[in-house]
Amino acid sequence: MNDTTARNFTLDDAVNDIEKRYVRANPKSEAHYQAATRTMPGANTRSTLHHDPFPVVLVKGEDARISDLDGNSYVDFLGEYTAGLYGHSEPTIKQAIMDALSGGFVLGGPNPYEARLAELMVERFPAVELIRFCNSGTEANMMNISLARAVTGRPAVMALNGSYHGGLFSFAGGSPSPMNAPIEAVIGEFNELDRCRDLIRRHADRLAALIVEPVMGGAGCIPAEDDFLHMLRHETEQHGIVLIFDEVMTSRLSPGGLHQLVGITPDLISFGKYLGGGVTFGAFGGRTDLMARLDPRQPDALVHSGTYNNNVLTMAAGIAGLSKVFTPDTTERLNRTGDDFRQHLQSVADQHDAPFQIMGRGSMICIHPQREPIRNPADTAASSAAARKLVHLEMHLRGFYLARRGFMSLSLPLTESDLNSFAEAFEAVVIEYGQVLAAH
């Protein structure tokens, strides 16, 4: 579509045109999608990967490049929703997995890898005194919530509107998911300091825990304001409420996690994503007195089990990643790059007076096609589904892979040239469709 044509198009016209070009470019992925619907609802087992008209089917990844069934290649800016920090072929991690594999797996007992990874994480994250492993960020959050309820004897958990703490504890869209675990929830508003303080005090005698993402990932990379987080720490401490930081995504934002960067010590932290080196992973940890309740040597110990909690492939990959690849210096460098990149994209949009808010912190970024500023998830309602679809599919057709909602997480193999190429493509989209989006 040229600039003259774009000016005569409505947003719906533009989206229809892009969708047709997308379908023409991906016939094999479409055929695979249609066949897969016969055995899987929606042709996949991970809802977030679905988008209209169908997602491409990925067949290979190397460094920060991926390719699909139709032979199209992309620069991967999604970074597997922060889990793909190391890219798709990091040699140190590949070797660690192969070495562990050669010693056998599914061993059915403690192994040396889990203790070493525990040491590395306790050394790295200041709020973690003891830690245990599980299989996903969802599981880590559920274990932390269950631990807090068991220790305090209180039934309820406070979460924030728009938050996502895994498939069993989600409040996206302004209400609890019907799939949530049956846990009494009190819902506050993100970054609304006074309202949340009042809510905590009103429900304090029932609240076992308060769980918060220091940057809301699923809601669009919305950072919590420092004053808001400090208020949560003060109020939970005053009322004996366990403060849980969901750092499944944000632990990558500084060498010691985002809690280190903002100077707050939560009682418990949930981990996941990249810390398994690209293999399925979850962990939860924090204060000794809380985590010690899971010590099986104690007569009143709480039970935490899981067949694959200490699987050797994940443990080995995690060790290699933390000890040899994602060093503190590398962490700081990646997040400086992310901040600079985010600011550059915003300046591109501003230069052309295009309606975009580029949100995020460090290596977590989200493109919102709207002019209105964003402090909490409700503010993102100004971005229509059609506008997001336009940006997503247009960037996809230009060779850049990101989430349908505009989410990106930078991986280590991305180069300066990759970032510049993305910015140039984004500027081309801004120029071509800025008026269409502004008129919407």
Written description of the protein model:
The protein has about 450 residues and is α/β, with parallel strands linked by helices. The protein folds into two domains: about 190 residues, Aspartate Aminotransferase, domain 1 (Alpha-Beta Complex); about 240 residues, Aspartate Aminotransferase, domain 2. The chain is built from 14 helices and 16 strands. A seven-stranded mixed β-sheet has the order 4-12-11-10-7-5-6, with helices on both faces. A four-stranded mixed β-sheet has the order 1-2-3-15. Strands 13-14-16 form a three-stranded antiparallel β-sheet, with helices on one face. Helix 2 runs parallel beside helix 13. The two termini are about 20 Å apart. The mean pLDDT is about 95.
Spatial ordering of strands, largest sheet: 4-12-11-10-7-5-6
User: Class of the largest domain, according to the CATH hierarchy?
Assistant: Alpha Beta
CATH level-four homologous superfamily name of the largest domain: Type I PLP-dependent aspartate aminotransferase-like (Major domain)
Global mean pLDDT: 96
Please indicate the count of domains.
Answer: 2
Instruction: Note the run of SSEs as H and E.
Output: HHHEEEHHEHEEHEEEHEHEEHHHEEHEEH
Give the overall silhouette.
globular
What structural class should be given to the helix and strand makeup?
Answer: alpha/beta
Q: Supply the number of helical segments.
A: 14
Low-confidence stretches: none
Radius of gyration: 22 Å
CATH architecture of the largest domain: 3-Layer(aba) Sandwich
Distance between the termini: 18 Å
What profile does the largest beta sheet have?
7 strands, mixed
The fold-level CATH name of the largest domain is: Aspartate Aminotransferase, domain 2
Strand portion: 15-25%
Q: How much helical structure, as a percent, in the residues?
A: 40-55%
Number of strands: 16
